[in-house]
Every structure is written in C-alpha cells, then in structure tokens.
Design a protein that fits this description.
Elements lengths: L3 H9 L1 H14 L5 E5 L5 H8 L4 E5 L5 H10 L6 E4 L12 E6 L11 H12 E8 L2 E9 L2 H8 L11 H8 L3 E3 L11 E7 L8 E8 L4 E15 L2 E4 L11 E12 L4 E11 L2 E11 L8 E6 L8 H6 L10 H12 L6 H11 L7 H15 L2
Parallel strand pairs: 1-2, 1-4, 2-3, 4-5
Antiparallel strand pairs: 6-8, 6-10, 7-12, 9-13, 10-11, 10-12, 13-14, 14-15
Helix pairs in contact: 2-3, 10-11
Length: 380
C-alpha cells in the first residue's frame, strides 16, 4: 500500500494531476456518476466533484480513506462522495457509473491487480456508454547505455574481499529498478511493446518481442521501459526519458553483463510480464547475433523469479504433498476464530485466550491485541 507521503508526491506531480483534471473536465457533467478506484487521499474524487459530478463513489481498501473523508468534509464535498473502504471486487453499487477513474500504475502499468481490478469494475460498474480514465497505456522500451546505474547495482559484487559472491550478483542482475534516464542514453530507437486498452483488456499477462539492427557501435547495460498514458481525447502524459519528470520514472532491466554492440549486429529481446498472486514476474531473454556466425555473441535469460531468495523449507511447506500441523501461533489463531460467534466480545475472547494459553501472553493487553488482529482480518 502507498503511504500518505507517497500519495502526497502523486498529488504534487503536476504533469500527472493536471492531466487527470483535464480529462475529468472533458468527460464529467452535472449528471455524472463517477467511480474512483483506489481512491487513496481522494484527490481524483475531489477533481471529479469540481468537474460537476453528481455523485462519486471513492473505493479504497487502506485506512488512508479516513484522511480522504476528513478532507472531503474540509472542502465541502462530503455530501457528494460516498467513501467505501473495501477491495472494489467486493463492492456492489446502487447505480451505474458514467466514468471510472483510477491511477493504479506503478513505475509501469504492469502493477499488481491493475488489469483485474479495472476489468471487473468496467463490467460491473460502468454504463454501456461510459468512459474509462485512463483509456489506455502504451508501453515503450529501448536499449540504454547506463553505466552508472548498472555499476551502482552490480559493482559492489565485483570485488568482495576475494570471496565468490556470484550468488548475490545473480539476484541483482535479475532485479529491475526505478530510474531516471535521458534520451542521449538510448543505444537504439525506442520501440512500442504493448498497449493496454482499459475498455477491453482482460488478460493480465503480457508477452512481446523487440528487434533492432545495430547501425552505430555502442555499449548497452540493459533495457529502459516507460509508458504513455492516454486519459481522454487529446489529454495524456508520458513517463518517457527527456520529458518533464513524473512520479513514475522508468523501469531498468539490467543485462547479466554489459553488451558491446557493433555495426550489423542484431538484437532480439523477448519479454514477458506474468501476474503471479499479487505481483508480476518479469522475464527477459536477450540474444545478440553477428551476421555470418552461428553462435550468439551474447545470450542471457533473466527473470525476477531469480531475484527472490528461496527457502527450501518454505517451498516444502507449499508442496501439494506436504501434510501440515498447526504451530503455536496457529493454535492461538484457531482458538480465536472458533470463539468469534457473533455473541462474544473481544474482551471475553481474550480473557478465555489467556486461560487457554497462560504461558503465551504477558498481560491482558497483549491477548486483546492478538484477538483484535484476528477479528480485524476475518470478522464482518
């Protein structure tokens, strides 16, 4: 979840927020119903009201929504905004929306459940002639000469007091990061990767291939990726290098090692973004070939899956053949869950908890905190 500081940075990004304001002013009228997905501090809801919306449903699962409610009262907008603290997939609305607005981007549009959330909301909330803001995101990539960024990520692993630390380097060269690039770092012209059309998108998984013929020698350390966001007719912004800086920046996917490119070399990048649970796993396969040779000059196969240290013990516990038994924490949580019956207060449950597990809790407050945590997670 974003922090209040993060939301403040997003509000303060005038490139982004001005574009959203213009888009809302273009599509919202005095009879419009607007849904704000992932409302955060509510700035898009407030801008929808300013554009004339009759009603705004601001949906946000995080506690930051309490701050948004307070600010709505401070600005005289509380009577036009319905704040709903929940995941949008669990929400039912009493009326159809004319506009759905959201900013669920991360550095890239491939961010957690953006596709699933927007697709679900479009189907269940949006009227047949309604508008999505943004309309679409267009993703671009280029090979870049980024020695400083690359060395900042990898250099500490080159000379580790004589020790072999290649295992750590492997993790870092399979990790991507947010960067700020400039066009003079492009080694090749940018290419279009994929377009996410929010009026029709269903599949959260993406795959594309990029190919370049090298005409000018140079060195590349990885792939820079960014997006253009089209919000409404003639209203857009971009996180591209060389344009005014936005809160998003660009994504940098390093190569296993820097590649030296010569004239007539060909470069092929196959890239995938696959949603697994709540996060995207990125895969990028790089082939550099020289005409007249059969063996690739460079070949790397990288994945952010390789960037996550894996515990064999934890993997074993996730195996389909593993037979689990409850540990002490599980026994405590099980007891609390079985005690939540719609009749017994948290204080009564925590008192019983102390009696059941006398060696587990130092005092009444710690037992009550445990009971409250379980209740917060599972109770209606």
């Amino acid at each position: 979840m974003y922090s209040v500081t993060n939301y403040g940075r997003m509000i303060g990004d005038n490139i982004r927020t001005d574009a959203y304001q213009k888009a809302l002013q273009q599509v919202v009228n005095n009879d419009s119903v607007v849904v704000d997905l992932g409302a955060g501090l509510g700035i898009l809801s407030f801008l929808a009201c300013r554009a004339g919306a009759r009603k705004v449903y601001a949906i946000e699962p995080d506690d930051v929504i309490t701050v948004a409610k307070e600010m709505a009262h401070q600005n005289g907008l509380a009577d036009r905004i319905v704040f709903i603290q929940s995941l949008s997939q669990a929400v039912e609305l009493p009326e159809k929306a004319d506009v759905i607005v959201s900013d669920l981007h991360g550095v890239l549009p491939f961010c957690q459940h953006l596709v699933g959330v927007t697709s679900d909301a479009r189907k269940r909330f949006l009227s047949p002639k309604g508008s999505m803001i943004p309309r679409r995101d267009i993703v671009w990539s280029s090979l870049v000469d980024a020695e400083e960024v690359y060395n900042g990520q990898v250099a500490p692993w080159k000379n580790a007091y004589g020790f072999d630390v290649s295992a750590g380097k492997r993790i870092l060269t399979n990790s991507w990061q947010r960067v700020l690039m400039t066009p003079d770092q492009f080694v090749v012209p940018p290419q279009h990767c994929v377009t996410l059309d929010y009026h029709s998108i269903e599949n959260p998984h993406f795959a594309f291939e990029l190919n370049w013929d090298i005409s000018t020698p140079g060195t590349s350390h990885g792939i820079a990726t960014w997006f253009d966001c089209e919000l409404a007719e003639n209203v857009s912004f971009s996180s591209a290098p060389g344009l005014p800086k936005t809160v998003y920046g660009q994504g940098f996917f390093p190569f296993t090692e820097p590649i030296r490119l010569e004239s007539r070399d060909t470069v092929s990048i196959k890239m995938e973004a696959r949603l697994v649970n709540a996060d995207y796993i990125f895969l990028w396969e790089t082939t550099v070939a020289t005409p007249g040779t059969t063996k690739p000059k460079y070949y790397f196969k990288q994945s952010t899956f390789e960037a996550k240290p894996l515990s064999l013990t934890k993997l074993h516990k996730r195996s389909e053949v593993y037979v689990p038994t409850l540990n002490d924490d599980g026994e405590v949580e099980k007891y609390v869950l079985e005690s939540i019956d719609g009749k017994t207060s948290l204080k009564e449950i925590s008192d019983k908890l102390i009696s059941k597990f006398p060696d587990r809790f130092d005092d009444e407050q710690s037992a009550l905190n445990t009971t409250a945590d379980v209740s917060l997670k599972f109770s209606r």
